[in-house]
Amino acid sequence: MEAPKWAQDLVVNTILFVNPDAPLPEIRWRRGSAHSSSGNSKPEYITITAGIARRDAKLVLLHELAHWLLPRIKKTYGRGKWQREFIVCQGHTDEFWDLAWSLYRWAKLPVAYCKQREFTYKAGAKKAYLRSRKEK
After folding, report:
1. The CATH number of the domain where 113 resides is what?
2. Largest CB tally within 10 Å, which of 33, 80, 120, 124?
3. Structural domains of the chain, count
4. How many Å apart are CA 52 and CA 63, to the nearest integer?
5. What SS3 state is found at 6?
6. What is the residue range of 122's domain?
7. 81 secondary structure, DSSP code
8. 128 with 97: CB under 8 angstroms?
9. Distant-in-sequence, close-in-space partners of 94: CB < 8 Å, separation ≥ 6
10. Contact in structure between 26 and 7 (CB atoms under 8 Å)
11. pLDDT of the chain along its 136 residues, tens only?
């Protein structure tokens, strides 16, 4: 399913805001019946399963774009002859959370909603939010 126009526009505008030289990611959009949305970032594409709340889908899309826009990292899995190296998007690092919070503010998402959604997700989100308040 193709991403809705508002989501496509958000992706383009976010890329232009963060790094105009970055390529546009492929967005794989699905609809879910839950209230909340979910997502996943891979170096090749971003997958979004959009719930019924657009605000939540917007937050999740920006969250995944923050992963996707940061420099890739190498991960090694396995041992011995089974060891493999993969290039992956960054996880929930300080750099990730700093970018995510700047995107939420840039997109004018309600900070109270973002805090409620992200603080229950990862402890690093709260630390980065507090850091971002000091930078203002």
Report:
1. 3.30.2010
2. 124
3. 1
4. 17
5. helix
6. 5-131
7. G
8. yes
9. 124, 127, 128, 131
10. no
11. 899 999 999 999 999 999 999 999 999 999 999 889 999 999 999 999 999 999 999 999 999 999 999 998 888 878 888 888 888 888 888 899 999 999 999 999 999 999 888 887 666 677 777 777 776 5
